[in-house]
Amino acid sequence: ETGVTQTPRHLVMGMTNKKSLKCEQHLGHNAMYWYKQSAKKPLELMFVYNFKEQTENNSVPSRFSPECPNSSHLFLHLHTLQPEDSALYLCASSRRGLAEKLLFGSGTQLSVL
Amino acid sequence: DQQVKQNSPSLSVQEGRISILNCDYTNSMFDYFLWYKKYPAEGPTFLISISSIKDKNEDGRFTVFLNKSAKHLSLHIVPSQPGDSAVYFCAATGNQAGTALIFGKGTTLSVSS
């Protein structure tokens, strides 16, 4: 148990579907992150939330829409994705100002058909 | 442009020998460096870190070396064990509070018995 829980673990969706990825932690961390891991690429930072406020958006297409209703929960809403969006989506959390102490979830393996 | 580079996608080592994983970075503002380890179907887990005020940090079988002038760091694993077989990610962060980690592409280490 890593302390950061992601659901679902696997997801297959069509290009016209709408789905959401969920992440939660009850560690008292107040910063949460979405990373994307594609084959043969670095882990790419997508979004950062500090105290529920989005502080970074690394030029992510609008078909990815994050939501952070509170410091313990983070969502990634997906719609009209492309096959090249197939990847492992990782959620992480940390105490604000201690980004080096990232704790990752197990990820959601997404396949877009 | 990649700020953190791991130029070797894979490394094979025999059990008991030393594994050396390398990482280069381009951003001189980075001042904290980390190594994460990732097994299949799991999220990355923190392994060892080093601050830019040091040139070496040791934790059991794992030692990280930092050469700031060359913008290079390396992870040494001695002795290597089959359970060390995993993907190793190098990561870096800057001196601003809350700056998210920037990762390399990872190096897949295979330790054979």
Write the layout of secondary structure elements.
The complex is a heterodimer of chains A (113) and B (113).
Chain A: E1 4-7, E2 10-13, E3 18-25, E4 31-37, E5 44-50, E6 53-57, E7 64-70, E8 73-79, E9 87-94, E10 103-104, E11 108-112
Parallel strand pairs in A: 2-11
Antiparallel strand pairs in A: 1-3, 3-8, 4-5, 4-9, 5-6, 7-8, 9-10, 9-11
Chain B: E1 4-5, E2 10-14, E3 19-25, E4 32-38, E5 45-51, E6 56-59, E7 62-67, E8 72-77, E9 86-93, E10 102-103, E11 107-112
Parallel strand pairs in B: 2-11
Antiparallel strand pairs in B: 1-3, 3-8, 4-5, 4-9, 6-7, 7-8, 9-10, 9-11
Counting DSSP H or I runs of 4 or more residues, the number of helices of chain B is 0
Following the backbone from N to C, one meets helices and strands of chain A in this order, namely: EEEEEEEEEEE
Categorize the overall geometry of chain B.
globular
Beta-strand percent range of chain B: over 45%
Quickly give the structural class of chain A: mainly beta
Distance between the termini of chain A: 31 Å
* Total beta-strand segments of chain A: 11
Tell how many strands the DSSP assignment of chain B holds: 11
SSE pattern of chain B: EEEEEEEEEEE
**Distance between the terminal alpha carbons of chain B, to the nearest Å?**
38 Å
Silhouette of chain A: globular
- Structural class of chain B, by secondary structure, is mainly beta
Oligomer: heterodimer
**Radius of gyration based on Cα positions of chain A:** 13 Å
| Count of DSSP H/I helices of chain A | 0
The percent of residues in helical segments of chain B reads under 10%
Helical content band of chain A: under 10%
